Amino acid sequence: MNYKRVPELQSLLDAVEKKYGAPLLSTNDFNVLSALLKFEGRETLSASTLKRLWHYVSQETTPRKATLDVLARFVGYKDFRDYRLSLLGEATESSGLLDAYTLPAEDIADGGIVIIGWEPNRLVRLRKAGDDQFEVVESLNSKLREGDRLQCSFFFKGLPLVVPWVERGGQRLPSYIAGKAKGLNLVKTDG
User: Fold this and answer.
1) Is this structure's pTM higher than 0.70?
2) Alpha helices per DSSP H over 42-169
C-alpha cells in the first residue's frame, strides 16, 4: 500500500501532535518526540524519519508500515490498521454493511452544490468542478477556505469526510479529515 496516498496519515500525525502537546515546528521538537517514543514505547524512530513524515524537510518519502505502527501505538492503538479502522468506528469489526445516507459525487451535476456540516458549528458549501473534484464556495468555522479544491467520491452522513488532498492557491496540501469525532451531521444538495 502506498501510504503517501492514505488520508488517515494526516489524522495520525495530528493525533501524535495532540499527545505531544504542541505542533512539531523545530528540530528540537522532532528530537524530543523521538526520545519520547523511545521512553514511552521502547520503540525507536529517528528525528530525521519524523521530519520527513511531517514534511519538515523536502525529501519525498513513503512511510513504512512499521513507522506508522509505532506512531499509532504512541497514540493508544494496536497498529496503524487499528487506528484507521477507529476513524470509522470499526476498531473491533473488520467489515460490515454501512447504514448511512450516502451521496455519491457522480450523482451531483457539474456546477451542482453540496452542503456538508459537522460539529462544532462547521458548515461548508462545495461546487462540483468535474469528475470527483469540488471547489469550496463558502466555509464557516472550518479549516477549508473559499477557493480550495478537493477530491471526494462519496459523502456519508454520520461518518468522517476523508479527502486525499486539498489544493490551495495552486499548491497541493496533505489529506484532510472533517468530522473526525462524530462524522458529518449534514449532507445535502442545494437545489
Assistant:
1) no
2) 47-53, 65-74, 80-87
Give the number of domains in the chain. 2
End of a domain among 87, 122, 157? 87
Q: Which domain holds residue 164?
A: 102-189
Q: Please compute the mean of the pLDDT values over residues 149-167 and round it to a whole number.
A: 89
Which residues does 76 contact at the CB level (< 8 Å), separation at least 6? none
Residue 145 lies in a domain: yes
Residues 113, 185, single domain; the answer is yes
**Confidence bin at 43 (pLDDT 50/70/90):** confident
Q: Which residues of 156-181 are buried (b: 16+ CB within 10 A; e: fewer)?
A: bbbbbbbbbebeeeeeeebbbebbbe
CA 154 to chain centre: 15
Say if residue 174's pLDDT is above 90. Answer: no
